[in-house]
TrEMBL record:
Gene3D superfamilies: Aldolase class I. GO terms for molecular function: deoxyribose-phosphate aldolase activity. The active site is at 89 (proton donor/acceptor), 153 (schiff-base intermediate with acetaldehyde), 182 (proton donor/acceptor). Its main location: cytoplasm. The lineage of its organism: Bacteria, Pseudomonadati, Bacteroidota, Cytophagia, Cytophagales. Keywords: Cytoplasm, Lyase, Schiff base. Catalyzes a reversible aldol reaction between acetaldehyde and D-glyceraldehyde 3-phosphate to generate 2-deoxy-D-ribose 5-phosphate. It comes from Hymenobacter cyanobacteriorum. InterPro entries: Aldolase_TIM (IPR013785), DeoC (IPR011343), DeoC/FbaB/LacD_aldolase (IPR002915), DeoC_typeI (IPR028581). Pathway: Carbohydrate degradation; 2-deoxy-D-ribose 1-phosphate degradation; D-glyceraldehyde 3-phosphate and acetaldehyde from 2-deoxy-alpha-D-ribose 1-phosphate: step 2/2. This is Deoxyribose-phosphate aldolase. It is an enzyme of class 4 (lyase). The gene is deoC. Its EC number is 4.1.2.4.
Length: 222
């Protein structure tokens, strides 16, 4: 798989503009990124711009704090899928995780996974590793497996830190091979991205994707 095909080309800043989303779509087509990852309000726009291309449409659910109610997250997911999303990155209810509400979390993930799969879409669950102990990361990973998610994603990019190699190594150790891992948050260099992939990440989420590719050209020409 070429490196660009591992990347969700991301723009989730609250001050992003429609013009920047359109440029994101043009870049994704030009470079062959896996998806564009855009705010829910821009899913229909991106789906229209990317119709007929191999670029997927990713958006976020319950983002970035995770504590919307399950009913709100489900409705947000329904609308995103209706608008053309092919991958949903849903933030786990971190507060519920830290409160031991494991059954409710598993039910929420399973309901969203079922909804995605009925629409031939994929569910990634953002667990926000920066806020979790190792034990909580393992618990969140187990709930993602029980909830039949397609990916575990490390971070929103809005916490104190993003994905670390240690996060990926821990997740790879406790997850079945069938569960894919997305590393995201603060990935600014090709070397950092390649280290995360070497540790076991299947997908990279970054708002710095072009720079990552540019560095790869320099490194191969060196
Ligand atoms: O994948 C989603 C993240 O928001 C990307 O994080 P970043 O903006 O730090 O690259």
């Amino acid at each position: 798989m070429n490196f660009a095909a591992r990347i969700d080309h991301t723009l989730l800043r609250p001050d992003c503009t429609e013009a920047q989303i359109i440029q994101l779509c043009e870049e994704a087509t030009a470079h062959g990124f896996a998806t564009v990852c855009v705010p829910p309000c821009y899913v229909a726009l991106a789906a229209g711009k990317l119709e007929g291309t191999a670029v997927g449409i990713c958006t976020v659910i319950g983002f970035p704090l995770g504590y919307a109610t399950s009913a709100v997250k489900f409705k947000e997911a329904e609308v995103a899928l209706y608008d053309g999303a092919t991958e949903l990155d849903m933030v786990i209810n971190i507060s519920a995780l830290k409160s031991g509400k494991t059954a409710a979390i598993q039910d929420e993930i399973l309901d969203l996974a079922d909804l995605c799969h009925v629409h031939q879409a994929q569910l990634k669950v953002i667990i926000e590793t920066a806020l979790l102990s190792e034990a909580e990361i393992e618990l969140a990973a187990a709930l993602c497996v029980a909830g039949e998610a397609d990916f575990v994603k490390t971070s929103t990019g809005f916490a104190s830190r993003g994905a670390s190699v240690a996060d990926i190594e821990l997740l790879r150790r406790v997850l079945p091979e069938t569960m894919r891992i997305k590393a995201a948050g603060g990935i600014r260099t090709r070397a950092a991205a390649e280290a995360l992939v070497a540790a076991g990440a299947d997908r990279i989420g970054s708002s710095n994707s072009i720079a990552l590719l540019a560095e790869s050209d320099e490194s191969t020409s060196a």
